[in-house]
Design a protein that fits this description.
Layout (H helix, E strand, L loop, with lengths): L1 E5 L4 H12 L3 E6 L7 H8 L8 E5 L16 E4 L7 H5 L1 H22 L4 E7 L6 E2 L12 H20 L3 E6 L2 E2 L8 H11 L2 E5 L5 E3 L1 E2 H13 L5 E5 L4 E3 H12 L4 E5 L8 E2 L4 H7 L7 H17 L1
Parallel strand pairs: 1-2, 1-4, 2-3, 4-5, 5-7, 6-15, 7-12, 8-11, 9-14, 10-15
Antiparallel strand pairs: 10-13
Helix pairs in contact: 1-7, 4-5, 6-8, 6-10, 8-10
Length: 312
């Protein structure tokens, strides 16, 4: 099967590409290398499979480039690409609007025009719900950041193209993803680096904010299940089973790394979720998905990856 993965050089996208190639699919990867973090990091993500004979890469910007050639023969689209992050979305709204809304609309239109796309699987986020997330997929979205607002707008576009043009779509709302290749500005990456190097570690707010963290391998497995058991028009929460606070994660990292953390506290970030735990009843019943990686095992894998990076 010929698949297209947007954001192929990113954290989740690169893991998904590897999994698709491992199961024998032909993969077309797209990435624009928008400088949210260094290009070298993304090139390193691609290195494990860029030379694979079943992988083709296009450096394209979904917001402006012609997508027809990249979609030639594609049957399944995994739209992972997005402009992530809370803080920057308050200052750089134009970038978030174009990357998360305009780019999604152009890809949806190209998918319809190609005539061959049988599945469009769209990666969304728990940030569409708001500051306190406990309900199922029917919970009314109330995003509290420009990032969440643009991701919700992207979801609406996906739904409209399904309803108005018959494009078979599915939406996956990912919750707090971590693991090897995590972006260098994300919390767990920063925690690990600070503890490893004996540097001060900043926790925004009290550190009591709760998350159902999701290991990237579980995210990929859920995404593949959404393809295997595809249901047009579906929406799924995809998260982890263990609800922990930032303070508890730091304590666990101290055990894994074998060093004490020098914790400093900063102000609560605008748009920060106070609690986010996925209700995965639908994912469990309709996809057969349950998270398999414990928080300790996932953090051990991420620590090992970051330690290996520091030795390169």
């Amino acid at each position: 099967m010929r698949c297209l993965v947007t954001g192929a050089a990113g954290f989740i996208g690169s893991h998904l590409c590897q999994a698709l190639l491992a199961q024998g699919d032909e993969v077309v990867g797209l990435d624009a290398f928008i400088p949210y973090y260094p290009r070298a990091v993304k090139e390193a993500n691609l290195a494990a499979f860029r030379a694979h004979p079943a992988f083709t890469f296009h450096e394209l910007d979904l917001r402006r480039d012609d997508l027809a050639a990249a979609l030639d023969g594609v049957e399944v689209i995994y739209h992972i690409a997005a402009m992530p992050g809370l803080l920057a979305s308050w200052q750089q709204f134009d970038v978030y609007m174009t990357c998360n809304v305009q780019a999604t609309q152009r890809l949806l239109r190209a998918a319809v025009e190609s005539g061959g796309v049988r599945q469009f699987i769209h990666a969304s986020t728990s940030s569409i719900y708001g500051s306190h997330v406990l309900g199922d997929e029917q919970t009314t979205p109330r995003p509290v950041s420009p990032y969440g607002i643009t991701k919700l707008a992207g979801e609406h576009l996906v739904r409209v193209y399904h309803e108005q043009f018959g494009l078979p779509t599915s939406i996956l709302r990912y919750f707090s993803v971590y693991g090897p290749r995590q972006r260098p500005e994300m919390g767990y990456y920063l925690f690990i680096e600070a503890i490893r190097q004996g540097q001060p570690l900043t926790v925004f707010g009290s550190g009591d904010q709760l998350r159902g963290n999701t290991y990237v391998g579980d995210i990929v497995r859920a995404t593949l299940l959404a393809h295997q058991r595809f249901e047009p028009g579906s929406v799924y929460n995809i998260g982890g089973a263990e609800e922990v606070s930032a303070n508890q994660v730091i304590a666990l990292l101290e055990e894994i790394i074998g060093r004490r953390a020098d914790v400093r506290h900063g102000p609560t970030r605008p748009g920060e979720q106070s609690r986010a735990l996925a209700d995965m009843t639908q994912a469990r019943e309709r996809l057969g998905f349950t998270p398999q990686t414990t928080l300790r095992a996932g953090l051990e894998a991420q620590v090992a990856w970051q330690l290996a990076l520091s030795r390169d």
